[in-house]
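note to self — DONT lose this again. spent like an hour looking for the file last time. sequence + predicted structure for the chain T wanted, 92 res
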Amino acid sequence: MAYTLVFTEEYAKRAKRFIKRHPELSGQYVKTLALLAANPLHPSLRLHALSGAMAGLHSVSINLSYRITLEMLITEQEIIPINVGDHDAVYR
C-alpha cells in the first residue's frame, strides 16, 4: 500500500535549506522519501513514535545523524513531513 507524502510550504522551505547545507545527502534524502511513501515500516527507516513535547509525531532516519520528523495520518494514508535535519535540530 503506497502512502501520499503531503509537503507543506513550511516543510518545503526547511527541506530546501537542508539540501543547500548538505548537498551530499540529497540522494539519501530522496531515497528516504521514496521508501517512506512505499513502506513507512521498512526497517532501514527506523520509524518510531516521539514522546514528550513531540508526542503524536514520528521520526525516520535519513542516516545515523539526520532525521525527518513527520505527522502520520494512517487512516487517510497520508504522511506529512514536519522537519528535516540533524538530531538536535529536529527534536527541539
